[in-house]
Amino acid sequence: MVDRRGLIAAGLIALVTCALLLLMDRPPICTCGRIDLWHGALDSGNSQHIADWYSLSHVIHGLLFYPATLWLLRRRPVGVRLALAVAIESAWEILENSPIIIDRYRTATIALGYSGDSVLNSMSDIGMMALGFLFASRAQVWLSVAVAVGFELLALAVIRDNLTLNVLMLTFPVDAIRDWQAAL
């Protein structure tokens, strides 16, 4: 059971993040003017709607943040650890939508036309992380690992990208991987 204060803290952190993203002039929704629950195409609609293939990586963030926060804050309630995970995910969403990271995506990955996330997508990403975190808090470790590996392999098979490749290409771009990804 997640404690109430931790849930309130997590919600407040997400609300502050939403406000900051709006202050950063991020579009509230897709500039196309519509809201899709699922956007499966690899085009300018990525990171603009509620969920897309990259939502899987945010669930994996939660699957990873749960054991990390358990290790760091073993004696603290799950809600406090969730609030920390939301703070970390929120910090990433703010950083990910800064000009330096947007430009890095454009130069180092296959996301040539990437313009950042809509606020709706960023809030969904935080929610996806929270779902992964809460799943990991209730599931056996082997199941969390299986879900993470399964999501990585699914995204790799469908879009030739996943959390592992995303981190690799942002930190140490490999031309052969970028060429392979672009061949899709």
Automatic annotation (TrEMBL):
Secretion signal span: none
Spans through the membrane: 56-73, 141-159
A Pfam cross-reference name: DUF2585
Keyword 4Fe-4S: no
Matching InterPro entries: DUF2585
UniProt KW Ribonucleoprotein keyword: no
Entry protein name: Intracellular septation protein
Organism: Sphingobium indicum BiD32
Record lineage: Bacteria, Pseudomonadati, Pseudomonadota, Alphaproteobacteria, Sphingomonadales
